[in-house]
Amino acid sequence: MVDFVFGERTNNNEHDKKWPPLLQSVVEENGDELKFTLEAEDDMKNTPLHLAVSEENIKMCKKIGGAHPSTITKRNNAGETPLFIAALRGERKIFLWLHYLYMASPGVSSTDFAHCLRRDNDDTVLHCAIAHGHLGK
Prior knowledge:
By secondary structure, the protein is mainly α. The protein has a two-stranded antiparallel sheet with strand order 1-2. The protein has a single domain, classed as Serine Threonine Protein Phosphatase 5, Tetratricopeptide repeat (Alpha Horseshoe), CATH 1.25.40.20. The protein is built from nine helices and two strands. It has helices spanning 2-6, 21-26, 32-38, 48-54, 58-67, 82-88, 92-103, 110-116, 125-131; strands at residues 11-13, 16-17. A hairpin with a 2-residue loop joins β1 (11-13) and β2 (16-17). The chain is 50% helix and 4% strand.
C-alpha cells in the first residue's frame, strides 16, 4: 500500500518535483481518504510530509500541513518530525510555514511545539547542528 501512496518520485529539475498522481490529487480533497493517505508511512515511518520537507518542496509542505496539521508532529524511525527535519536542514521557509500551520491548530501550546524539535533520544536541533559542525567559531 505504501508504494501505491508514495509511488516513484522523479527529479528532472531541482525545482520540479514529481509526485504520484494519487498523492497530488488527494491533497486537494477532504475526508477519510485524505487522512489515510497523508498518514501513510514508508518503511522508515516517513509520512508524505517528511518526504516533502526532505525534497524541499514548500508547495507540497503547505498543502499537506494545511490539510492535515497533525502530520507536522508525526515522528519517523529516527524520532524526527517534519518540523525537526526542516530546522535541521536549514529550510527556513518550510520551517516557518509548518510552525505557522501547527501553532494555528486548536489546542496547541508552545510546550507542544518545543517537543517537535527534539528527537526521541532528547537531542535538539541545536545538538545536531553542533554534532555536524554547522556552527562556526
